[in-house]
Amino acid sequence: MEAFRLELSQGLTLYWTKVAARADRHAVAHRLCETVTGRPLRFAESGRPYVPGGPYVSLSHSGALAMCAVSEAVVGVDLERARPVSPRLLTRAKEAGYGGKREFLLWWTAREANCKRLGRGFTWSPLPEPEHCVQGTLEHAGGTYYYSVCW
Hints:
single chain, alpha+beta, 4-stranded antiparallel β-sheet, 3 helices, 36% strand, globular
């Protein structure tokens, strides 16, 4: 498995890899985290992945990519391939101060990453803000992907 790496801060690294088949995305994301940490993943009752004894991990997948964040602090990551956005969701994003598809996808990934950081499923309820959140884009196979990492 070829993994790409981006050091976001001391103690936080983001890894991603290509996924050949859509049906394999979830398994590839798990293998990626296990490969880069050198340890097997376990899952809490909530479904949140963890590595016994650390480090903290979070995973995501979308389109033809899988991603894993590895951190010394509790972390959440979300990855989304650029796609059409429903008018209802665009309205939600605009209410939060984001307008347009690109801004929506950055807002959405930040919200998902923060939910994962907190160990919760997605919610529209107010959330405590993360201390740090890094956002970016990746280009792969003619597609644009947006990601957010919160810790």
